[in-house]
Amino acid sequence: MKRNGKQQNKATALTISQSMRAVLFTLLTTVLTLTACNENKQQELPAVDPANVVTDVMMSRRSIRAYKDSAINRETLNEILKCGIYAPNGMNKQSYEIRVIDSPALIDSITKAVVKDNPKIAEREGFKNIFVNAPCVLCIAYDTQYDMAQVDCGLLGENIILSAWAKGIGSCCLGSSARWIKDSPSAKPFLDRMAFSEGYELLYCIALGYPDETPKAKPRREEMIRFME
To answer: 1 pLDDT exceeds 80?
Structure first.
C-alpha cells in the first residue's frame, strides 16, 4: 500500500511538473510572439523628420482670439517659458523680463482698472477682459538702454508662441493691451506690481489659452521676399 501511495505521489508530482513546464512554455512563446510583434510594429513606423515637424508647427500656427476657460497648468507654462528664454538674443544680454498672470481674479482687476479709464474697450462684442478673453497673459518688458532689446523680445515671443502651439495652446500678440495698461492711471498700481527692473518698460503682451476657434490662415505677401544677385 505504501509503495502504491508513493507511486501515486510520484505520478502526481510528475504530472504537475509536466503541467508547469507546459504553462511556462506557453508563457515564453506568448512573450516571444508579443516581442516580435512589437518589433515589427516599431520597424513599420515611418521615420519622423524633425525639420518637417518644426515646419508644420510654424505653418499651422494661428493667432487665437477665442479661448476655452480651461487653465494652463504651471508645469506646462514653465516648459513654454523655458523655450522662450532659449531664443537667440544679442550678445546674450537676455534684455527682457516676463511677468506671468494666470489668476482670473487679477486679470479681472486689471481689466476693470483699464476699462474705468477707457470704457469703449468693453464695448467689443463678447468682451470679458483686455487680453482677448484669454485665461493667461504674459507681460514682456524690454531694456530701454539697449537698442536691440525689442528684437530680443520679439525672438523670445516667437519661441513662446511656437512652443505653446506645439502643445495645443493658442496665443495672440497684444500691443494694444500693453498700451492700455501703461496709459491708464487706474492700472498704474498693477504696472507697479509687475516690478520690472529699473530701465525696463512693458513692451507687449502674449495671450495664452486653449483655442476655442479654428481660424484660417491669412494671405502672406511672398513678393516681399527678394534674392539679390
So the answer is: no
Per-residue pLDDT tens digits for 141-161: 999 999 999 999 999 999 999
Q: What is the spatial distance between Cα 11 and Cα 17, in angstroms, rounded to a whole number?
A: 10
List all residues 6 or more positions away from 72 whose beta carbon is below 8 Å from its beta carbon.
Answer: 102, 135, 136, 169, 208, 209, 210
Q: Return the amino acid letter for 144.
A: T
Going by DSSP bridges, is the β-strand pair 136-143/170-174 parallel, antiparallel, or unpaired?
unpaired
Average pLDDT along the chain: 87
How far apart (Å, rounded) are the C-alpha atoms in residues 31 and 223? 60
Q: Whole-angstrom Cα distance, residue 167 to residue 175? A: 24
Give 116's contacts (C-beta < 8 A, 6+ positions apart): 184, 186
- Predicted local distance difference test score (pLDDT) of residue 77: 98
Q: Are 186 and 220 in contact (CB under 8 A)?
A: no
DSSP 135: S
Distance (Å, rounded) from C-alpha 210 to C-alpha 167?
A: 9
| pTM tops 0.85 | no
* Planar angle of CA 158, 62, 165, nearest 5 degrees: 60
On whether the CB atoms of residues 172 and 162 are closer than 8 A, the answer is no
Beta bridge partner(s), residue 171: 63, 208
Contact between 174 and 118 (Cβ < 8 Å): no
